[in-house]
Amino acid sequence: MDRENVLNLRSFWQIQIIGWCCFYLFDLLESIHAFLTKREFIAEETVPIVCMFLGSCALRPFCRWLLQRSQSWIAFESKAAAAAMVTSIPVACAVGLILQNFNHVPWHALVTVWAWSFFILFVWCSLYFSIKQWQQSSMEKERLLRAESDLREARLLALRYQLNPHFLFNSLNAVSTLILDGNALAATRMLAQIGDLLRASLDSEVTAEVTLSQELAFTEGYLAIEQTRLGERLRIDIAVPLETRDALVPNMLLQPLVENAVRYGVAPLIEGGWIAIKSALDADRLRIVVGNSGRREGEQKKNGTGVGLGNTAERLKTLYGANFEFSLGWPEAGGCEVVLELPLRRTGSLLEASPCAP
């Protein structure tokens, strides 16, 4: 017997025993006035309940068989009524014989007990059917929710894995540029840094979300690679307070944002530029800003294409629906920045958060 059947059987007996005990207590309380005048009060109330309890146990296999045939409510009720009617006959006979000490039982007494037993057993069949339908509906909803969750997780992981070859391609292009420029030492150092970064990515547990602190550590590894290539042309400013570092963000989102920032906001400038990563809390929201020194001309078109931004947009929609804010702009102070406001979730809860790319 598998685990689900064991749980179903245990659930049936729990409900069965509790239900009949409550019915018995209610019947006792409702007829308590007879206790003062009749010594046989307890027997007259107990014997019918016990016999109907046994009758309901005998009806269970038949009701299960009806449910497995996926019949309509009307078909089930009509067949359950017939089964309850037949089962009530031995129940009524047993009650009558026991209460009359196996002597002659008046037929009108048998009919009365039979009608009462039929009504109770028919109600029992209806309740059994209703509870089973509710349980099956709950299980189907649970399976559906689990399937939707697994599908969403698979989609998020597929989007995440899409970034790895994109990042590797761009990094190896940077290495080849260093080699062509005759900077073999920097190329060797960059290859070692790429290896360390990929090892960290492969060794870490693949999850839909990580803490902002973990995501920042991976991004700093990527920035070290870019600094090897750009040298003093790349200036970095990271302002991430401690109270935001345990917030959950989607795995590998800062890196493509920063990669776009370097590619479009720093590398094209002869004098180089800066990259800024900032975070803050605003009530129940996490605010993340990724800025760069890029110029406005043509920047929106460039930043609107590429794997990084498209991937980020897909993940944000998958994770949050409409419960996030994303804006790309050029502040009056200069540069370009992406601002994200996401639902705040700490490491103790399971949700995802993310930034985007300039």
Question: Helices and strands in order, then pairings?
Answer:
Elements: H1 3-30, H2 41-68, H3 73-99, H4 107-180, H5 184-203, E1 209-211, H6 212-230, E2 234-239, E3 248-250, H7 254-265, E4 273-282, E5 285-292, H8 299-303, H9 307-320, E6 325-329, E7 336-343
Parallel strand pairs: 2-4
Antiparallel strand pairs: 1-3, 4-5, 5-7, 6-7
Helix pairs in contact: 1-2, 2-3, 2-4, 3-4, 4-5, 4-9, 5-6, 6-7
Main traits of this protein?
alpha+beta, 358 residues, 63% helix
Description:
The protein is of the alpha+beta class. The protein is built from 9 helices and 7 strands. The chain has helices spanning 3-30, 41-68, 73-99, 107-180, 184-203, 212-230, 254-265, 299-303, 307-320; strands at residues 209-211, 234-239, 248-250, 273-282, 285-292, 325-329, 336-343. A hairpin with a 2-residue loop joins strand 4 (273-282) and strand 5 (285-292). Helix 2 packs antiparallel against helix 3, helix 2 crosses helix 4 and helix 4 packs antiparallel against helix 9 (307-320). The chain is rod-shaped and about 115 Å long. The two termini are 58 Å apart. The model is unreliable at 298-305 and 349-358 (pLDDT under 50).
General shape: rod-shaped
Assess the beta-strand content as a share of residues: 5-15%
SSE order, as H and E? HHHHHEHEEHEEHHEE
What percentage of residues falls in helices of 4 or more residues? 55-70%
